[in-house]
Amino acid sequence: MTEHEASAADSEQDLRFEDYFREGSAPTEALLWWQLERNEPLLTALRALCHGPAALVKLRVWVFMEVMTLPSSRISREDLNRHFHQLRDEPLELVLKRLREAELLLWDAQHQLYGVTPLAQQLLGLLSPLVGAGAQDADLTALLTNVTGAHQLGTLDPAQLQHLQAQLARLYDEFADAIASGSEFHLRRARQRFERALKLVERASEALSAIMVQAQEQGNAKLERLARELGLAQARLLSMASQFNRALQQADRQRVTLGSTGLTSTDVRRWLQSVPYLENLALGALSRPVHPVMVAQHELLDTTEAEFERDRPKAKEAEALPTAQVAPEGELAVMSLPPEMGIMQALLTRWMDAGEIEQDLAPAVLGGSYARASYRAQLLPLLGDPQAQHLTGATGDMARQPWRVHWSPEQGAIADEHVQWMSRGVLRSTLPIETTKDSKE
């Protein structure tokens, strides 16, 4: 370390935490600052363990993790020497001294024994991912494990939900960039990670739903809001499955097949990616010299004469357009409505002119065949339809008829050769009673 670097390090050590802020005061109102302030001993222990050269930090972490795996609650120095028999005495003593100064180990001078402190147990929880299996998507797995485990133990903190929500947002942006890239290989790699993340989120979905229900029952508004936002982030991530399918289908359509070999451009690209040195493919390509071809004049003349004498198909001659012809006579077929609508309207009009107030449905529906009766029954809902009353033509006239159908839950036999059973009902006039009386007179 140079003199300038040493002076810079000393000046940084002299600075307080508040000196890094503009106003010269720490953000005491922030929840995160308060949590860091509360866990100041844990930060100090972590700094004591991880401060210094990389090799020394790795040695401290290794010794600390090995000590934490020892099953005894009290450890003698002889047990430590036997356990770390491969380590030299000086480095071991140096590391044990640092652990004692950081209050991670307690030395009982009376009984000559070492003991593990509760602070060391907390620090072990922070360092446990260092000795994990290194599985894929360890970041999301750790966050989901913290949230679900804290919920089961009743120690869930809103910050844990915020960290998980932020990770889901980062995954969504990563997958969206892969879809926007259009690269087939990038899509397939992102699709594999997306499926793994989807399985992890689905396994934790029950715990997330339970967190939302519990927060609602306890009246914890902040925790409930974070749980709902986490559910929305989970739903956004789940909705990307269809986007991956469309992007992969688009990539499949862009794949080119090389002749009749069955090989595609994807196979060629995958093979090129497996070649260690692409420049070796050009070795020997220019080893043979160029062989010029000499052609004599009489050979060129013979080739030209044969080309002129070769039979060629005659070009088609231009033909005049055909003369005009008279179009044959025809009939314009216009679709018309069945006559049953007109017949029913005539019947309703006669009843209205006769001053009838109520009539049975049977005369208006039955008659002819079953198909005709069924069609007339389907016309009855048009009576008084507010949307159809503004139409022109037979449909609008039917809707403007002053009659309304009233069906009855009773059913019974009907004296008709095509319909044997029918629901009861009546047609009632909507005209005032005085009008019907005047029409009768």
Distance between the termini: 122 Å
> Mind telling me the C-alpha Rg?
45 Å
Low-confidence parts: 1-12
Dominant shape: flat
What report would you give on this structure?
- This protein is mostly helical and 441 residues long.
- It has three domains: 17-128, Arc Repressor Mutant, subunit A (Orthogonal Bundle); 138-252, no CATH class; 339-440, no CATH class.
- The protein contains 20 helices and six strands.
- The chain has helices spanning 3-14, 31-38, 40-50, 54-69, 77-83, 89-101, 118-127, 138-153, 158-181, 184-203, 205-218, 221-238, 240-253, 265-274, 297-309, 339-353, 362-365, 370-379, 394-399, 433-440; strands at 74-76, 105-108, 113-116, 358-360, 403-413, 421-429.
- A three-stranded antiparallel beta sheet has the order 1-3-2. Strands 4-6-5 form a three-stranded antiparallel beta sheet.
- Helix 4 crosses helix 6.
- The longest helix is centred in the middle third of the chain and has 24 residues, at 158-181.
Key terms:
single chain; about 450 residues; mainly alpha; Arc Repressor Mutant, subunit A; 3 domains; 3-stranded antiparallel beta sheet; 20 helices; about 55% helix; coiled coil
Summarize the structure.
The chain is 56% helix and 8% strand. Mean pLDDT is 77; it is low at 1-12.
